[in-house]
Amino acid sequence: MRKFIFLVSVCMFFSCSGLMAQTQMEMNAKAQKEYQKADAELNKVYQKLMKILSKEDKKLLITAQKDWLKFRDSHCKFESQQYDGGSIQPLIIATCLSQQTTKRVNDLKASLKERSSR
User: Which residues contact 46 (CB under 8 A, 6 or more apart)?
Assistant: First the structure.
């Protein structure tokens, strides 16, 4: 059931965001671009947060970010494993990476907002 929900969310993601590609290769490329966009936003927010942190807090954030990257990558590998070797696997991986990265962006934005208001 969880796999079905994930596939439905992938389909909804592409239909709602105007990414109506015709071929699997086009869908894979568009999903990769969406992930790159989310990753660029993550780097931007991360750098803003790093600028306002104390030396000790920076160390903690670096550790947290490294741990999060390991989680994100292993989580997306797990989610895509069932499609191993299939042409949809790159789409599943890129979509998962994009979704997880967007969640992290939102978390870092919340931290930035909270710390900026102090």
Answer: 61, 65, 108
